[in-house]
Amino acid sequence: MVLLPSPSRPPAFVVTVCALGLLTACGDGGTAGAAGAAAQAPAASASPSPATASSPAASRCRTPDLRASVGRNDPGAGQENHPILLTNTSSRTCTLHGYPGAAFADASGRQLGPDPRRRPESPARLRLAPGGSAWAGLSYADPRISGARTAVPAVLLVTPPGEREPLRVPWSAGEVPVGGNESAVTVTVLRAGDVT
Question: Is there a contact between 99 and 188 (Cβ–Cβ < 8 Å)?
């Protein structure tokens, strides 16, 4: 059975959007400022987290501010799915926005296979308090099923959005696809939270 909103009463989200619109209209001529923008930003997750949606006021997270790691594989339907985590190790709050760079590499740092394809998604600016984390999904077809040409990387190079220097994460999840018809690796936008 599908429940539809009652015609005599608008859905709760319509009321919320209208209320926010009225509050915004009471501002100082349309410039909400950082505090107003942060108040209007949607929460990035339902539970409290040191990483939340953010206004652009905080400065961008730089490579030296972050530690990268790869979470536990969550395989399914012939896919390998690894979360890439970026954790703020600095003493200041910083922001991330977009996709991380990711590349499998051998011990000398030579890239194995093409760059991952970006899944078409709309990124949110994420605010990472000290110790806060954000994650992106790294997925590919299981090479044992797909028949793709494979390699066993020594590291995953993870580059924070807007940065040029990668972080090196030891790779222990075995072979990955690096060529052939079914070798596509994809990466998602960064999301708030810690997925381990």
Answer: yes
The first and second tokens of residue 183, run together, are 């070798």
Q: Please state, as a whole number, how many other Cβ atoms lie within 10 Å of the Cβ of residue 178.
A: 20
Angle between helices 33-40 and 12-25 (to 10 degrees): 170
pTM of the model: 0.71
Report yes or no: 123 and 189 within 8 Å, Cβ to Cβ. yes
Cβ burial of 154 (10 Å; 0-12, 13-18, 19+) is middle
What mean pLDDT comes out for the span 50-62?
Answer: 68
66-108 residue pLDDT tens? 999 999 999 999 999 999 999 999 999 999 999 999 999 999 9
Cβ-Cβ contacts under 8 Å for 173 (sequence gap 6 or more) = 70, 73, 80, 82
Residue 183 CA to residue 190 CA, distance in Å, equals: 22
Q: Of residues 65 and 11, which shows the higher confidence score?
A: 65
- According to the model, what pLDDT value does residue 50 have? 52
**pLDDT given at position 120:** 94
Contact 99, 187 (CB under 8 A): yes
Range 68-105 burial, b when 16+ CB lie within 10 A, else e: bbbbeeeeeeeebbbbbbbbbeeeebbbbbbbbbbbbb
Q: How many CB atoms lie within 10 A of CB 141?
A: 18
pLDDT at 57: 61
